[in-house]
Amino acid sequence: ASAFDPGRLLSYAWREALELRRDRVRQALAVVGTALLMLVLGYGFNFDVDALRFAVLDRDDSAASRDYIANLAGSRYFAARTPLANHAELDRRMRAGEISLAIEIPPGFGPDLARGTPVTVAAWIDGAMPTRAETLRAYTLGMHEQWLRARLRETTGVLPAAAWHIETRYRYNPDVESIPAMVPAIIPLLLMLIPSILSALAVVREKELGSIVNLYVTPVTRLEFLLGKQLPYIGIGLANAVMMTLLAVWLFDVSLRGSLAALLAASLLYVTAATAFGLLMSSFVRTQIAAVFGTAILGVLPCVQFSGLLDPVSSLEGIGAAIGQVFPATWYLLIVRGVFSKGLGFTDLAYAYPPLALASVVLVGSAAALLRKQER
Fold it and tell me: How buried is 235 (Cβ within 10 angstroms: 0-12 exposed, 13-18 middle, 19+ buried)?
């Protein structure tokens, strides 16, 4: 027999495709599972901070203080609640989670403002969630500054030099919304999860049923066996990538500004790497339960923590930074975000394709090297 026979590889691929067609559970996982998780995560990964519940302890009760409160209540970022009577009520309602922000306007706020005397407003913020608290603080300061600038312009007609500030403008996601940023990032996460689990199960299932003996007693090589098992799941993974892209565009209304061909080419390389990761995991485990849990944990955790999904890879240090540089999701995520948000194509993203291709080769080669050709 030759060292590598494409015919034997394709025969295993055809056999796996037939088994997959008869297995309703794996079909549901491959199609319905991906779509369902896309919906759950697409709406669940929402870091938008708006309609923040606040209440006011107004100790001045002047026209100026009422205008200040109306300015906050009229913003989409804030939602006014019943005014506060005292600090005890402030503490009670913030403990209960009824409000996350309390504004205390001091006595003499209006007269001081009219005289040009510096005014101080106290903002009590629920700090139980630090990231949300920092965002709330920034919103409050921004609204405070905006109101003061408008007030000074009305009363004096001149904007003091001290009140000038930097005007910030966001590119690619001008409204700084979560869905345009996070929905494309979910695609690498789910493509690392579902196709890798399916490819791992394809091999481990052979071990559990005992049919892997065909690998031991026939001339088929380990590489032919693994690639034959992998091919149907590469097709499923690519179909999932197309489905999630359509969901992102049509359901979540995320614009696809860049090259669709560049995205599909990267998706093909990435699902090849993801299914190869599943094959590698199948070399270590002997049960389908272990394959599911092992592949899910070792595939998803690096994807979330080290690939730039939530934090830039450049901010990582030590082992985390090393994992981020070699994990295929890092490079695919750069391509996905570049195509969706920045309108990039092959030329702009050329640097990200070789690491994806190399990851596929290394993972398949490692799986073939670790898969035993006979029982010990």
Answer: middle
- Calculate the alpha carbon distances from 340 to 8, 187, 198, 327 in Å: 40, 11, 27, 21
More confident residue, 40 or 274: 274
Please give the helix or strand (H or E) that residue 66 lies within, else none.
Answer: helix 63-73
Give 143-151's long-range contacts (Cβ < 8 A, gap of 24+).
Answer: 143/71, 143/72, 143/75, 143/77, 143/78, 146/71, 147/67, 147/68, 147/71, 151/64, 151/67, 151/113
353 touches 269 (CB < 8 A): yes
User: What pLDDT was estimated at residue 47?
Assistant: 63
Cα dihedral 147→150→151→153 (10° resolution): 160
Q: Which residue has the higher pLDDT, 82 or 375?
A: 82
| Structure-token pair, residue 217 | 């007693």
127, 133 Cβ separation under 8 angstroms: yes
How would DSSP label each residue in 76-132?
TTEEE-PPP-SHHHHHHHHHTTS-SEEEEEPTTHHHHHHHT-----EEEE--SSHHH
How does residue 163 score in pLDDT terms, banded at 50, 70 and 90? very low
Question: Tens digits of per-residue pLDDT, 189-230?
Answer: 999 999 999 999 888 888 887 777 777 777 788 888 889 989
What is the Cα 177 distance to its own chain's centre?
13
Residue identified by tokens 């970022």 is 77
Q: Is 53 helix (H, G, I), strand (E, B) or coil?
A: strand
Q: What is the pTM of this model?
A: 0.76
Tokens 């499923």 appear where?
236
User: Can you say whether residue 234 is alpha, beta or left, with left for phi > 0 and alpha for psi between -120 and 50 degrees?
Assistant: alpha
- Predicted confidence (pLDDT) per residue in 253-270, tens digit: 898 999 999 999 999 999
- Distance CA(216)–CA(142), nearest Å, equals 69
Torsional sign, CA 273, 33, 345, 322: negative
Strands (E), the chain: 52-58, 78-80, 101-105, 122-125
Average pLDDT rounded to a whole number, residues 178-191 = 88
Residue of 102, 49, 51, 103 lying closest to 76 (CA atoms):
51
Q: What is the 3-state secondary structure (H, E, C) of 196-219?
A: HHHHHHHHHHHHHHCCCHHHHHCC
Sign of the alpha-carbon torsion through 309, 282, 16, 209: negative
